[in-house]
Amino acid sequence: MNETLWNEILEETRVLARAAANPRTGMLSISPETAALLEKIVPAATVGFKDAVAAVQDTSSEPIPSSEAQVGSQHAGETALSSDTSPHAASLAALAEEVSVCTKCALHEGRTQTVFAEGNPNADLVFVGEAPGFHEDQQGIPFVGKSGALLTDIIEKGMKISRKDVYICNVIKCRPPENRDPLPDEKQACESYLIRQLELVKPKVICALGGHAAKTLLRTDESTGRLRGRWHFYQGIPLRVTYHPSYLLRSPGEKRKTWDDILEVMKVLNGEVTPVP
Ligand code: SF4
Question: Cα–Cα distances in Å, from 195 out to 8, 180, 187?
């Protein structure tokens, strides 16, 4: 195969992918095998034509973990381009599509795009945060930027699991202006989407990041500090409250407490503890 033909094939593939993607969500359903192949493809200009071809030809028939079969997404709400073809993954994708055109509250007027979720539709652990900020609004992905990097560290360096293996979402799917706190009527308007997400993912544990998530899920006015340190239950699912990463960036002295909370979450994930309502 020569380089010109290779580049033509790549361009044709891009055109076909764009045409086949859902126009609202930008999502494209692909098989695990195709996902594995796509992860091997790198631009010829970056690594050299021979290496690019070799990277693809090197793809053996060895199975890849399901989490590895998920290709990163550029659009709001994508647990897509997920190769997960389970009914609830499809239901999550349909919900993301619905959210992407939602106008139920005034926040839709200022958004660049909705921020639905990121991660594994079969996750044992769901993190629920507050609302998208500037970077999330730009990228359509929850918890990017500095607070996202801290959350990723907690998950990957602390818990030793891949961020792709958990499910991350927010109470609110559109960015409030100037990152202000979401208003009660905005949280009320958006809550049904979160409820449905949690119904579909059905995690073993929920970790509420900060007061807005905790108060929404637990229907309480208690502060994060008072809610921490014990198990709560959301629809029978154990729920742990901890500080939001953006708060930890402002108050690094509280990181120790968050780590204590995460250790309790890990005990449930590891089957060492089964909280009882
Ligand atoms: S914040 Fe939620 S309810 Fe409001 S427009 Fe966005 S998706 Fe709809």
Answer: 45, 23, 12
